[in-house]
Automatic annotation (TrEMBL), chain A:
Transmembrane segments: none annotated. Residues 213-353 form the Acyl-CoA dehydrogenase/oxidase C-terminal domain. It comes from the Bacteria. The keyword Zinc does not apply. Residues 10-98 form the Acyl-CoA dehydrogenase/oxidase N-terminal domain. GO terms for molecular function: acyl-CoA dehydrogenase activity; flavin adenine dinucleotide binding. It comes from Pseudonocardia thermophila. Coiled coil: none annotated. The lineage of its organism: Bacteria, Bacillati, Actinomycetota, Actinomycetes, Pseudonocardiales. This is Acyl-CoA dehydrogenase.
From TrEMBL, chain B:
Keywords: FAD, Flavoprotein, Oxidoreductase. One of its GO terms (cellular component) is plasma membrane. The lineage of its organism: Bacteria, Bacillati, Actinomycetota, Actinomycetes, Pseudonocardiales. This is Acyl-CoA dehydrogenase. It holds the Pfam family Acyl-CoA_dh_N. Its cofactor is FAD. Residues 220-377 form the Acyl-CoA dehydrogenase/oxidase C-terminal domain. Residues 15-110 form the Acyl-CoA dehydrogenase/oxidase N-terminal domain. The keyword Oxidoreductase applies. Coiled coil: none annotated. The keyword NAD does not apply. GO terms for molecular function: flavin adenine dinucleotide binding; oxidoreductase activity, acting on the CH-CH group of donors. Belongs to the acyl-CoA dehydrogenase family.
Length: 359, 396
C-alpha cells in the first residue's frame, strides 16, 4: 500500500481560494446570524453560487454523468471552506451524502444533482452513523411510502428526498412529504421532521442499505474536513483578537497561560488536518483503510471542532458570549456536527471492532 | 568527481557495490568503511563525505537494498547523538578537515558521540551555560560541569558548547567545540535516574585542553550552531515514520489483547481515545515528513514532540492500570549503564517511568508551547530581562 498524500495539491489550493473568495462576498456572519431569527433568505442565492456558478454540486459525479469527475480530496477542501464560513448550504447533505448514495445508478437524478438543478436529502436522522441501524419506512404493495423520520438535515433545502423503504431507496418529491422545520441548535444546518402519508416514490436503488451506508460513510469521512475548517477559523480569529486585545496594560495574547492554550489548540488543529486529509485521501483512492480512516477522523475532528469553538468563546471573554459576535455560530455548528453522522464514541466503538480491541 | 545523475538507480549501485564487497566474507568494519567511501552511507551528504548529493528521501532505497542482501548496518541506535546531531552540524558548520576527520568513523560507529550542552544551571535556558573555555595559544582550556549526557561513558567525542566571552550577553558569548572524551580532564560519572538505571551521566570538565582546530564555526557563533543541532534533535524525536500500532501504543494494545480478564469499560474508553490520538499523531508525522520533503520547513517539529510526549505518558500509565497487580511489580532496580535506550523496551514499569522524560528532554513541553505560540501563531515573546545584559552580570 503506497503512502497517501496528506498535503494539498496546487489545484486543491486554487479551489480553496475560489470558494473562499466567493464565500467572503456572499456569506456574511450577519446573514448566518439572521437565520436564528428565522430569516433564511440568504440560502438560495448562496447555494446557487456554490452549486451552479462554481459548479461544486457535481464535484463527486463522474464527467460521463454530467459532473466534474473530481474526488473526495477536492470535496474535502470545499467542506473546509464551508466550515470556515459556517455556510448554510446543503453541500454535505446533497452533493456528498445523497449524491454518493445514488452514485452507482444510472438515474437521471444524478445528472440533475450534478448540475445543481435539483437538491436531494437522505431521509435519515442527522445523528445516523455509517454503521448505525437505519430507519425503514413502510412500503405498501402499490409502492406507496408511509412513516416519519425526525431530525433530517438538508430536507428544508431539498426538492427530492431519498427514502429507505421496504429494502429499496426511493426518490420522493419534497411536495409529497410533510416537512416540518425544527428549531435547531444549529440553524445554519436546520433540521426538519419529515412525514410520508402514502407518498409515491421512484425506486432509484434496489438494495438501499449499501448505498445509504456508502453515503453516510462519505459524509462522516468528509465532515471531518468541515470540522477542521470550523476549528481553523476559531483558532485564527481568537489569535488575531488576542494580538490586539489589551488588559493590565498588556496584549492578552502575551500571557503565557493564554499562549499555551492557543499552542495546544494549534497543535490539535494541525493533528486534525492530518486525520481529515487522510480520511479524504483514503476515500478518494478507494483504499481498504477507509473504515478505519473514517472512524479515526470522525472521532478526532468531531471533538476538535467543539474544543476549538469552546476555546474561542472563553478566550474572547465577554464579547464571545454576544449574539453579535459570530463565535456562537461556530460553537452551535461544531456541537451539532459532533453529534452528526455518528458521535465520536460510536466511531470509537466501531474502531474497536475494526482494529481488534474488544472491550 | 562528476555530478551524480539525480535519476540514478540506487538499487543497481548497491548491487554493484555488493558484487565487489561480499558482506558474507568482508570484515564488518571494512564493509562499512567501503560503503561510506562509495557514497552509500547517507546519500544526501556530499560526495567524498559518505554521500552522493541526492535528496534525503532516496536513502530508503539504499537501506532497503542493503537490508535485503543481509549486509551489516552501522548500528545506528548506538550512536543516536552522533548520527542525528553531530553529523549534520559538522556538515553544516565544520571545515573540510573536520569533516574528513570526524564523519567517516562517526557513521561506521567506530567513534560514538555524545552531547555536552545542558548544565545544572542551564536546562531550558541553555544559553545561560557557565562552562568556560579560555584561549591558550592554539588550544582552549575548558572548565565546567555538564549533565544529562547520554552515551558519555561510551563516547569518543562530544559536541560541546562553552562560554568564551562572559562580557557579552548570554547568546553572544558562546562557542561550539568538539571535545575528545579521552582527555584526562574529562570525568564521567553515572547519573542514576528514576528508572534505576543510569542512562545519562554527569560530566566534569577540569582543565580539558581542546585544540582550536576542533572549534566548529566562529568564536561567538556557538548559539547559532547549537540551535541547528537542537532543531535536528526535535525532528529526530518527533518526525519518524512509523507503522500503525508501533511504539508505545503497540505495547499497550499487545497487553490489551493478551489480558482479556483485565479489561474494564473505563480502560476501554481511554484505550480507544489514545489509539485514535496515537494514530492521528502518526499521520501528523507522515504529513510533516511530506512537507519537509517538499521543502516546506517550519517549527512543527515542536508541535509533534509535545503530542508524542503526552500520548506516551498517558499510554504507559494506562498499561500499568490495565495490568493491575502486575502493574505493581517492577523488573529490576539494579543500577546499570545501558549502551542504548529503548523507551518502549524492558517492562511496563520502566516504560511508565522513562516516559516522564519525554516532556523534559529535547525541550520541555512548556518551552515548545512557547515556540509554537511565538513562531507559528506570532504571539508576543516571553519577556527576556537578561537578553542584553553581559552574562557575567546576570543573577545565577
Amino acid at each position: 500500500m503506497s503512502e497517501l498524500d496528506l498535503l494539498y495539491s496546487e489545484v486543491e489550493e486554487d479551489l480553496r481560494a475560489t470558494v473562499r473568495g466567493a464565500l467572503a462576498d456572499r456569506c456574511t456572519p450577519a446573514a448566518v446570524i439572521a437565520m436564528y431569527d428565522g430569516d433564511r433568505s440568504a440560502v438560495p442565492g448562496l447555494w446557487k453560487t456554490v452549486a451552479v456558478e462554481l459548479g461544486l454540486a457535481g464535484l463527486l459525479v463522474p464527467e460521463a454523468a454530467g459532473g466534474a469527475g473530481a474526488s473526495a480530496r477536492e470535496a474535502a477542501v470545499v467542506l473546509e471552506e464551508l466550515g470556515r464560513a459556517v455556510a448554510p448550504v446543503p453541500f454535505l447533505t446533497s452533493a456528498v451524502i445523497a449524491t454518493t448514495a445514488v452514485a452507482g445508478t444510472g438515474a437521471a437524478l444524478l445528472g440533475e444533482l450534478a448540475a445543481g438543478e435539483r437538491v436531494a436529502a437522505l431521509a435519515v436522522p442527522l445523528t445516523t452513523g455509517p454503521d448505525a441501524p437505519l430507519p425503514a419506512l413502510d412500503l405498501t404493495a402499490d409502492g406507496r411510502i408511509t412513516g416519519a423520520v425526525t431530525s433530517v438535515a438538508g430536507a428544508l433545502e431539498a426538492d427530492v428526498l431519498l427514502v429507505p423503504a421496504g429494502g429499496g431507496l426511493y426518490a420522493v418529491p419534497a411536495e409529497h412529504a410533510r416537512i416540518a422545520p425544527v428549531v435547531s441548535l444549529d440553524m445554519s444546518r436546520q433540521l426538519a421532521d419529515v412525514a410520508f402519508d402514502g407518498a409515491a416514490g421512484e425506486l432509484v436503488v434496489a438494495d438501499a442499505e449499501p448505498a445509504v451506508r456508502a453515503g453516510l460513510r462519505a459524509g462522516a469521512a468528509l465532515l471531518a474536513s468541515e470540522q477542521v475548517g470550523l476549528a481553523r477559523w476559531c483558532l485564527a480569529e481568537t489569535v488575531a483578537y488576542l494580538k490586539v486585545r489589551r488588559q493590565f496594560g498588556r496584549v492578552v495574547g502575551g500571557f503565557q497561560a493564554i499562549k499555551h492554550r492557543l499552542a495546544d489548540l494549534a497543535i490539535a488543529v494541525d493533528n486534525g488536518v492530518a486525520a481529515a486529509r487522510h480520511a479524504a485521501a483514503a476515500l478518494a483512492a478507494d483504499d481498504p483503510d477507509v473504515p478505519v480512516a473514517t472512524a479515526v477522523a470522525a472521532s478526532f475532528c468531531g471533538e476538535l471542532a467543539v474544543t476549538a469553538a469552546e476555546e474561542a468563546i472563553q478566550l474572547h471573554g465577554g464579547i464571545g458570549m454576544t449574539w453579535e459576535h459570530p463565535a456562537h455560530l461556530y460553537l452551535k455548528r461544531a456541537k451539532a456536527d459532533q453529534l452528526a453522522l455518528g458521535a465520536p464514541g460510536s466511531h470509537r466503538a466501531r474502531l474497536a471492532e475494526l482494529v481488534g480491541l474488544p472491550g | 568527481m562528476g555530478e551524480v545523475d539525480p535519476g540514478v538507480d540506487l538499487a543497481a549501485v548497491v548491487e554493484r557495490f555488493l558484487a565487489e564487497h561480499d558482506p558474507a566474507t568482508t570484515d564488518r568494519l571494512e564493509f562499512l568503511r567501503a560503503r561510506y567511501d562509495a557514497g552509500l552511507a547517507w546519500v544526501w551528504f556530499p560526495e567524498g563525505h559518505g554521500g552522493l548529493g541526492l535528496p534525503a528521501a532516496r536513502q530508503s532505497e539504499v537501506d532497503a537494498a542493503f537490508a535485503a542482501a543481509g549486509a551489516p548496518d552501522n548500528a545506528p541506535r548506538r550512536n543516536v547523538i552522533g548520527l542525528g546531531m553531530a553529523a549534520p552540524t559538522i556538515l553544516a558548520f565544520g571545515t573540510e578537515e573536520q569533516k574528513r576527520r570526524f564523519l567517516r568513523p562517526l557513521w561506521t560507529g567506530e567513534e560514538i558521540w555524545c552531547q555536552l550542552f545542558s548544565e545544572p544551571g542551564a536546562g531550558s535556558d541553555l544559553a545561560n551555560l557557565a562552562t568556560r573555555a579560555v584561549r591558550d595559544g592554539d588550544e582552549w582550556i575548558v572548565n565546567g560541569q555538564k549533565v544529562w549526557t547520554s552515551s558519555a561513558h561510551n563516547a569518543r567525542f562530544a559536541i560541546l558548547v562553552a562560554r568564551t566571552d562572559p562580557d557579552k550577553p548570554k547568546h553572544a558569548g558562546l562557542t561550539y567545540f568538539v571535545c575528545d572524551m579521552t582527555d584526562p580532564g574529562v570525568d564521567v560519572r553515572p547519573l542514576r535516574q528514576i528508572t534505576g538505571e543510569a542512562e545519562f551521566n554527569e560530566v566534569f570538565l577540569t582543565d580539558v585542553r581542546i585544540p582550536d582546530a576542533y572549534r566548529i564555526g566562529e568564536v561567538g557563533q556557538g548559539w547559532r550552531v547549537a540551535t541547528a543541532t537542537l532543531n535536528n534533535e526535535r525532528v529526530a524525536i518527533g518526525g519518524r515514520a512509523a507503522p500503525r500500532e508501533s511504539g508505545m501504543i503497540g505495547k499497550v494494545v499487545e497487553a490489551w489483547r493478551s489480558l482479556p480478564e483485565k479489561r474494564t469499560p473505563e480502560l476501554h474508553d481511554r484505550l480507544l481515545r489514545l489509539w485514535v490520538e496515537a494514530e492521528v499523531a502518526r499521520l501528523t508525522g507522515i504529513r510533516l515528513r511530506q512537507k519537509l520533503a517538499q521543502g516546506q520547513p517550519g517549527p512543527e517539529g515542536a508541535a509533534t514532540k509535545v503530542t508524542f510526549a503526552r500520548i506516551n505518558q498517558q499510554l504507559s500509565a494506562l498499561e500499568l492500570e490495565l495490568r493491575g497487580e502486575d502493574g505493581l511489580r517492577y523488573s529490576d532496580w539494579t543500577m546499570v549503564r545501558p549502551e542504548q535506550v529503548d523507551m518502549t523496551g524492558r517492562d511496563h514499569g520502566y516504560r511508565y517511568l522513562r516516559a516522564k522524560g519525554n516532556s523534559i528532554e529535547g525541550g520541555t513541553s512548556e518551552v515548545l508551547r512557547n515556540i509554537v505560540a511565538e513562531r507559528v501563531l506570532g504571539l508576543p515573546p516571553e519577556p527576556r530581562v537578561d537578553k542584553d545584559v553581559p552574562w557575567k552580570e546576570l543573577q545565577r
